[in-house]
Amino acid sequence: MQTIDLxxxxxxxxxxxxxxxVAAVRPxxxxxxxxxxxxxxxxxxxxxxxxxxxxxxxxxxxAVDPAAFAPVAGAxxxxxxxxxxxxxxARETPDPNAVLLPEISTTQRFPMSLVIAFHTLDSAVHAxxxxxxxxxxxxxxxxxxxxxxxxxxxxxxxxxDGEQRTAPGAAFGPSLAVDDRADPWSEVLTQLxxxx
Length: 196
Fold this sequence. Notes:
Layout: H1 8-23, H2 41-60, H3 77-92, E1 99-100, E2 109-110, H4 112-133, H5 146-156, H6 184-191
C-alpha cells in the first residue's frame, strides 16, 4: 500500500465536517435510508461512532479485535462527540509500533500515517452519507474542500475491492465505473460504491 503523509489538520477537518453533519440530524431523520445499503441513518451513526472508538483503541496499541469497532446502538450527537474526543486523545499518545486494524487485516500492521489517512477517508465519506440522507441539509451536493478531497482519493484508491464489499454490514459497496471527467470527490464516491 502507498504510504500517505497526512497532515493531522486534515484529519481534524474531516472530523469537524462529519460533526457538522451529525449535528444536523433530527430524531425524525433516524429511520431515513442512507447511501449505505441496508442502513438507515441510526445504523450509520452507530457504525461511525463504533469506528471512532475502534480506531482509538487500535492507535493506542491496546488489545484489538473486531468487536472494538462494533456499532454503538442509539448513538447520537453526544456519543459522536465523545468518540471524536476519544480518537483525538488517542492520536496524541499513539503506540510507537505499527497499528493492527483487524477490520482490514488480522496480521498486517499499518504505519500510523496510513491509519490516520484511512480514518480521514472514513470520516469524510460518511459525512457525505449523512448529508445525502437528510431532506433538510446539503444533500448529495455536499463535498469537502479540494485539498481534503485529493487526500481522501489517494486512500480510496487503496481500499480493496471484491466480495468483502458485498458482505452484510460492509461500509463501502463495490466500486462503480469512474467517469473520465469526474472530479476527485466524485471519483472517491464511485470508488466506494456511491453514486454522486
